[in-house]
């Protein structure tokens, strides 16, 4: 049993492709079952429909008048008019292009929110893998601590040890059991969070190892690809396109509107009817609208520049952090590759270590293994943020 502890811990720290691959089915389930994503998708469709609303000409106007004559011999008069107002044809084309850009922006906004939700789900999975590995480690230590405590129970009955030594084994067992309980509580919390993201359906993720994807060889090439596909940046680019198209629409709406219709006047023994043509001259209503649209375009451009700078800075920071964590993990791997726990167990069995020293040394090595697990967890979390645009 003692010799198995070291082997089990190394298996917990080894890299395995199965863990990373198992995230894909989980994320796929969440994408299908997430109430949040379903709501966001419906909101996106509603927005796209709203943008395509109002692109047609205004409704025709029909008027009817009935006027009583005085004196009565002149008869009553009936008026009928039908008119239809139109913008210049270029206005409708420009409005349609603007609506298309707004619809594309709504799609990129949905992709951005989807990316954030899936990133949160993936990072929750990473935390769960860490807890699974730690739980397995503490479970093995619990078994070991119980065996030692039981052995000292028998030894005190035989008179070969004292109460102080027995209390040490009991305290060690309680400490490890407490750590195991705390980790299992955190596991259940993470599983509950994943279940909530999955629309109330439970998720099973028993993996205990991380797969750490390699860092890009050329950060500049990686950055260029990320900028091209990032939903955040694509959304900001669409905002610039929307602002530019809005300027075009506003300029077109400053042109006169015109109307055409029919008008008839019917009086006893007399009828007047014919075609009417009208022209609306925009003198005051559209004042400063073009200037406002231009200022809004400038704001959109500035916001895009800020978002691009922040994106580049954040990505470079994540990359540098990943490099540092990767180097630290390599250092831990070199040190922990020796069978320190096996040597520790042998020394204890041969009586070279007192119980107290053995327990302290075991705790020291366990903390080191936990530290490496935390490094791998943090590296996996950093890589998930670095590659979030791929989700």
Describe the model.
The two termini are 43 Å apart. The chain has a 4-stranded antiparallel beta sheet with strand order 1-2-3-4, with no helix packed on it. The chain is 70% helix and 10% strand. With 391 residues, the chain is of the alpha+beta class. Strand 3 (257-267) and strand 4 form a beta hairpin. Helix 3 packs antiparallel against helix 4 (89-158) and helix 4 packs antiparallel against helix 5.
Q: Which oligomerization state do the chains in this entry correspond to?
A: single chain
Q: In order across it, which strands form the biggest sheet?
A: 1-2-3-4
Biggest pleated sheet: 4 strands, antiparallel
The percent range for helix content is over 70%
Give the uncertain stretches in residue-range form.
1-20
What is the count of DSSP helices, taking H or I runs of 4+ residues?
Answer: 10
- Termini separation (Å)? 43 Å
Class by SSE composition: alpha+beta
The rough form would be described as elongated
State which percent range the strand residues make up.
5-15%
Rg, nearest Å: 37 Å
Q: What's the order of the H and E elements?
A: HHHEEHHHHEEHHH
Number of strands: 4
Mean pLDDT reading:
84
Write a compact overview of the structure shown:
This protein is an alpha+beta fold and 391 residues long. The chain has helices spanning 2-13, 17-33, 35-51, 89-158, 163-197, 219-229, 231-253, 289-336, 340-349, 355-386, and strands spanning 61-67, 77-86, 257-267, 270-280.
What are the SSEs and their pairings?
Blueprint: H1 2-13, H2 17-33, H3 35-51, E1 61-67, E2 77-86, H4 89-158, H5 163-197, H6 219-229, H7 231-253, E3 257-267, E4 270-280, H8 289-336, H9 340-349, H10 355-386
